[in-house]
């Protein structure tokens, strides 16, 4: 299927300043492969602070994703939940815009358009069938 590709081949879709939607609610359901690849790309190519994203996440993610992105200065904004020492450090230093929103309100705010448009959604998939479904 034309939409099925290797993780590294998705890099061409990501640009500085985009708003990314990211699934997740604890380590069981947050996206790992693409988020980790983006962090590795930024670190290996010394793009810290040059490839930053506004992230609308489902909730907590693992240290190897958003907290690593904070370490690499890849986050300009983060909603509605944060966890991780690098994220907290950037928020407290005024380097990362963060808005804490009760998770029960977040889906409505998101669907009403309070956060604007999402450029790319990164979601965890457990299986993709050969027809792309």
What topology, given as strand order, has the largest sheet? 4-3-2-1-5
Please count the beta strands (DSSP E, at least 2 residues each).
Answer: 5
The profile of the biggest β sheet is: 5 strands, parallel
Return residue spans where pLDDT drops below 50 for at least 5 consecutive residues.
none
Task: Give a concise summary.
This protein is an alpha/beta fold.
Key terms for this structure?
133 residues; 5-stranded parallel β-sheet; globular
Please characterize this protein's 3D structure:
With 133 residues, the protein is an alpha/beta fold. The protein has four helices and five strands, in the order βαβαβαβαβ. It has helices spanning 33-44, 63-71, 85-92, 106-111, and strands at residues 19-22, 53-57, 75-79, 97-98, 120-122. A five-stranded parallel β-sheet has the order 4-3-2-1-5, covered by helices on one side. β3, α3 and β4 (97-98) form a beta-alpha-beta unit. The chain is globular and about 45 Å long. The model has no long low-confidence stretch (mean pLDDT 88).
Layout: helices, strands, pairs:
Layout (H helix, E strand, L loop, with lengths): L18 E4 L10 H12 L8 E5 L5 H9 L3 E5 L5 H8 L4 E2 L7 H6 L8 E3 L11
Helix pairs in contact: 2-3
């Amino acid at each position: 299927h034309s939409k099925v590709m290797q993780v590294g081949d998705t890099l061409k879709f990501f640009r500085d300043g985009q708003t990314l939607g990211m699934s997740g609610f604890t380590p069981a359901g947050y996206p790992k492969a693409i988020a980790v690849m983006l962090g590795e790309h930024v670190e290996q190519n010394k793009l810290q602070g040059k490839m930053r994203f506004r992230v609308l996440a489902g909730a907590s993610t693992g240290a190897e994703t958003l907290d690593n992105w904070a370490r690499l200065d890849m986050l300009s904004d983060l909603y509605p939940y944060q966890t991780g020492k690098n994220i907290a450090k950037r928020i407290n230093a005024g380097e990362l815009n963060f808005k804490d929103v009760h998770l029960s309100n977040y889906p409505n705010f998101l669907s009403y358009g309070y956060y604007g448009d999402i450029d790319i959604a990164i979601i965890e998939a457990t299986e993709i069938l050969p027809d792309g479904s």
